[in-house]
Structures are given as structure tokens and as C-alpha cells.
Amino acid sequence: MKEVKPDISLTTSKKEQVEDMFNSIAHKYDFLNRVLSMGIDKGWRKKAISYLKPLQPKQILDVATGTGDLALEAMKLNPDHIIGLDIAEQMLVFGREKIAAKGWSEKISMVKGDSENLPFEDNKFDAITVAFGVRNFQNLAVGLKEMNRVLKPGGRLVVLEFSKPNAFPYKQVYNFYFTYILPIMGNLVSNSKNAYTYLPESVKHFPEGAEFAAFLKEAGYKDIIVKPLTFGTCSLYIADK
Question: I need a surface site. Which of 70, 83, 191, 199 has the fewest CB within 10 A?
């Protein structure tokens, strides 16, 4: 799997670059999510959380939480506690504001941390969620194994990640939008020259579908389900420990 960095001209690690990139666009992140996905991302998150409902998880970890959208959606499950973890402190700052505005600061904790070195004991969480974050891991296999380590036996991992549609003509329209329109709009609004050119490039080289399912199996997960969403623009992965 090719490693894709936000800025190939720099010698810093992918992890460092991803942290810097998300810190720099945090102030516009939610706005760009809604606009660039035309609001479809909200439905994807609802779908992801619906696969946790049968488990009624009480302790949930949301990895690469960003500003906490998936953690907020998971509150519909009435858990005891949710921890949202992210490497970029500025994303967490905006997330804490959103959580406080809903009065959920005691229920949702936002923690700065590394997804490949989780600061939690083994078998702690009933469920783990990741929305559009595994693509940014420096070492995908390590990140998946770390999440498996802190997940309770019988617990569930739910992952949302971008993928590449294959059906004509949606594939062609999507590729044009994703490769040309989205980077221009994203870069103009966020004032980041790399964030929205990195996005399509990272999706292009990320393992999806059966290939990502193989990574999950290798990391110790079972009963893996792969569900393409919106003609394959996004994929939902459900896996149990």
C-alpha cells in the first residue's frame, strides 16, 4: 500500500503532517464537510451508528473523532460514556464547543491521542467507531490492531471510509468532482494548499472493499461485513472481536 502524505516535499512523517493539516483546517472543517459532501455525510454517520444499536454499547471509543460528529450521533444509543480521540488538538477544541452546546460534556470526553498507540487498557470498550480516519493512519495494520486490543471480546468496530465508485456514469462524474472541483473549493475556503488535494490522492491509494476486509481479518476481527454506500462513494465496514 503506497503511503500518501499531505505534502511530499516535506521530510516529516505522515502522522506529523496529518496533525498539522487538520489543525490548520479545523476552523472550516464542519462547514466544508457539509458543503463538499452536499450533506450526504450525515446519513452515512446515522447508518454507521445503526449497526451498534443491537449491542447497546455503554462504553464507546470514537477514533479520529475530529470535531466529534460521529460521537454526537452515537449519543442516540444512550451510552454511559463516549471518548472521542484525535491527534489534532484544534479539531478537539471545536468538538468540545459543539458538545458543550448540547450539554453533553459529562458524557463525551475529547482526548488528544495517537490512534496507533491508544492510551487505554485492554478490553475496555464495547464499541469503537472511526469515520474517515483510518485512511490517515501512518500504519494501518498497527492502528487496526490497537483498536482490537482495547475492544472487549464480543465488541464491534464500525468504520466509515471513502471509496471509489465503479458504475457508469456516476464514476466519471465523481472522479471529475473529487479530482478537480473539490480541491479547488476546499483549498479556497480552508486556505490550505494541501488538505483537499491530499484527500482524493489518499482515497485513490487506500485499500477498500475486500482488500480492507483482509486487513481487518489480519488484525483479529471476525464476521466482517462490507457495505458500499451512495454508489460506492463511501464504504461501511462492520467487524466484531
Answer: 191
